[in-house]
Design brief:
This protein is mostly beta strands. The chain is built from five helices and 24 strands. The protein is globular.
Length: 412
């Protein structure tokens, strides 16, 4: 039941410097054509680039790759060495990670590592995860016959060559899986170029194929998704229901880790008899806490739960996991992209001001001029925004005091 039936007459164009990928694909029942020149790939076909196969020959053909995708071609790119791949022509700047979780140093200086476990599926209902679950992406089986007499470590990380985006604006990228601190590491994403796209993976898969059913199923799903002419490729998450910010099932992968600028707001739940002892406080960065900082790990009466999102960017996360902001930048920012029904004419946004001061926030949709609002201390404000010339996709931008909490968004 793990194996996909091979439907149709798939012919995969393979760029690889070894026979390993071709052998795996043949065992799965696919027909392959090995290529070294992008011109040899049929228009609208699927090009599969093997693990660590990206080389100078591909770098020389960057413009051909771009044109191939612009005309509707699809590329499945397996994990690549950070020193080889050159995709500066893509619509988003990508940085391959170099530091490892296996570094014994405490408080590592690299916020994001190249390898990771407990991979987060941002869009769990996406076709590449068909019949797979979060539990399948915690740890993977070692395939190297490692034992303690050998140096190094067993290969158990699902991701061994993740990457980051240097830009926060992911207008042409669908992040499908991520990991590491703040979900800053990207494990799998689809980058859209013209009529086509590139599915870029950091997963360690090829060595496991034929041994690990999860890896086999995952590869089949990727190939089916990228080669099926009838498969819809969605850049943005489609939203029909109310978004309850902070509820991940409701958000449906709208916010991709640190890149949206909208951080999760945590709210302390205090038993009634302790509320006077631990009064709710809000600092200038917007963090809400009970009485004093900390306590979530050694004071069980102080439980912190998700409640909304807050505009925080630009910010950085230090080695202890704390948020650092430039004190000179008084307002935080954040945004999200979504696909919505073209029939929707208004957006309703519920804000909350948990502080004891009047706070200011603005929002805009697409290229509209931002509208500013003032929210009284301890109050909520439901804002209606007209959606002009709704073409089915929107970018919503927020800017305001970092203490402002965005609770809900709905479309009517």
């Amino acid at each position: 039941e793990w194996k996909n039936p091979i439907e149709g007459n798939h012919t995969l164009y393979v760029y690889d410097n070894s026979e390993k990928l071709v052998s795996i694909l043949h065992n799965k029942g696919y027909k392959t054509v090995t290529v070294t020149e992008i011109d040899k790939v049929s228009s609208g076909g699927l090009l599969v680039i093997g693990e660590n196969a990206w080389d100078e020959n591909l770098n020389i053909q960057r413009e051909k790759l771009k044109r191939f995708m612009e005309e509707g071609g699809r590329i499945l790119c397996m994990k690549q060495k950070q020193t080889n791949i050159n995709i500066d022509w893509m619509p988003v700047s990508i940085k391959m990670m170099t530091k490892t979780n296996n570094d014994p140093a405490h408080r590592p200086f690299s916020f994001t590592t190249k390898d990771g476990m407990n991979i987060n599926l941002e869009r769990p209902s996406h076709p590449v995860f068909k019949n797979l679950h979060w539990n399948n992406f915690k740890l993977w089986s070692d395939y190297t016959d490692f034992d303690e007499s050998k140096s190094g470590f067993p290969e158990i990380y699902p991701v061994t060559q993740g990457f980051e985006f240097n830009a926060g604006d992911l207008q042409q990228v669908a992040v499908l899986a991520n990991y590491s601190r703040g979900l800053s590491g990207i494990a799998l994403c689809e980058i859209f170029v013209g009529k086509g796209s590139l599915l870029l993976s950091g997963f360690d898969m090829i060595g496991r194929c034929g041994k690990d059913p999860v890896s086999d199923k995952f590869l089949d799903n990727m190939i089916d998704y990228m080669s099926n002419k009838n498969q819809e490729h969605s850049l943005y998450v489609y939203i029909e229901d109310t978004i309850v910010w902070g509820d991940f099932a409701s958000e449906k992968g709208l916010l991709t880790g640190v890149y949206s600028g909208l951080i999760l707001n945590t709210f302390p739940i205090i038993p009634e008899q302790y509320k006077k002892q631990y009064p709710l406080k809000v600092d200038k960065k917007g963090f809400q806490y009970a009485g004093s900082y900390g306590g979530w790990n050694d004071k069980p009466a102080r439980q912190y739960v998700p409640k909304g999102r807050r505009p925080m960017a630009p910010y950085s996360i230090n080695s202890m996991g704390g948020f650092d902001v430039d004190e000179k930048v008084k307002e935080g920012e954040g945004h999200f992209y979504a696909a919505i029904p073209k029939s929707k004419k208004q957006m309703y946004t519920l804000f909350e001001n948990p502080s004891k001061e009047i706070l200011e926030v603005s929002l805009s949709i697409n290229d509209m001029k931002p509208e500013r609002y003032f929210i009284d201390p301890g109050k909520q404000l439901n804002v209606k925004t007209n959606i002009l010339n709704n073409e089915g996709t929107i970018k919503v931008q927020f800017k305001g005091d970092r203490r402002i909490v965005i609770l809900q968004t709905s479309f009517k």
